[in-house]
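Entry
Fold in C-alpha cell form

___
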Amino acid sequence: MRLLASTGPLFARPLDWAFAVIAEAGYDGVELMVTQDPATQDAEEVLAAARKEGIRPEVVHGPFLLLTRRVFGTDPVDKARRSLELAGTVGADLMIVHPPYRWQRRFHRWLVEDADDEAARHSARVGVENLYPVAVADRPIRFHRYTTAEDLAPFHHVVLDTSHFGVAEVDINVAYRQLREQAAHLHVSDHRGGPRDSHAPLGHGRLPLGAFLHRVGEDERLGLGAVGRGRTSMTLELDCRRYLDDRSALVGYLRQERYKAQALLAGAPVEEVLGRPDVVAVAPSVDTGEDADQPTVAPDGT
C-alpha cells in the first residue's frame, strides 16, 4: 500500500517546502490539500514542486474546509469540478470531497448521480470522506450528511478518516468491515476523545489503530476488498503545528509516524509499536514530565 502525507498540516509553508519535507520523511507520495495558497490551485506549480522534490501528488483534497470556503468559488459542485480538473492535470487518480451539509441537496445529488462519470473523464475518482457532528453548547449537532459507515454505503469510492470516526463515536474496525469494498483511501491518525478532531500521532489517542491497521495489512496480503485489489492508498493526516518552526524535528516526527504505520500494517505487536494496549478507555496523558508527542526518530532514521 502506498503511504502518503498531506500538505494540509503544512499549509503555512511554501508548497515546494512541504513536498521536500514529505519526500525527506520517506513517504511514497503526497496528498495535495487545495488551500488559499495559489500554488496549490495551479497545476503547473504543483507539477514543478513535484519535479523539483522527486515526489508525486497522488491524491487531491478539494477545498472543503471552512478556511477554504471561498477557494474555487462557493458552490460545492463547482469546487468539486475544478478540483477534479486539477487532479486529472497533475496525475492524481483520486479527488477527495467532504460530505454536503444537510441543506446542500444539489451537491448531494451530484455526488450520487454524476460524480463518478465526470471523474472518469479526468481518469480519476471522487472519494467521499466521513465527517462528524459538531459540538454546539455541549450538544452534538449533525451539520454534514455523512458521518457513519451507513451514510457512505451508496458511494463507490469512500475515504475513511479514523479521527473523524473517533469524534462521531463510530467503531473504526466495524466501519472498515462495512466499507471494505469501497475504501478508496484511508486518513489515519489517532483521536484523543471528546468533540475535538485531534489528528493525533498514532498511539497518543484511544482509537484501536493496531487492529485496524493489522486488518488492512492482512486484506492487502490476502487480496481482499479494495485494498487487496491495489486500489487503496493511505495518508497519515497528522497535526504538525508544534514542529513547523523546526524542520529537522518535523521530518523526524513524520518519519516516526510512517514507521509506526508500516509496522502495524505488517502485523507487528501493537504495544511494541504504540507503547500502549490497543484498547484503552482514555488517551495516554500528555501531562507528564516528558513530551508525549516528541519525535524519537531523527531525520536520518536513527
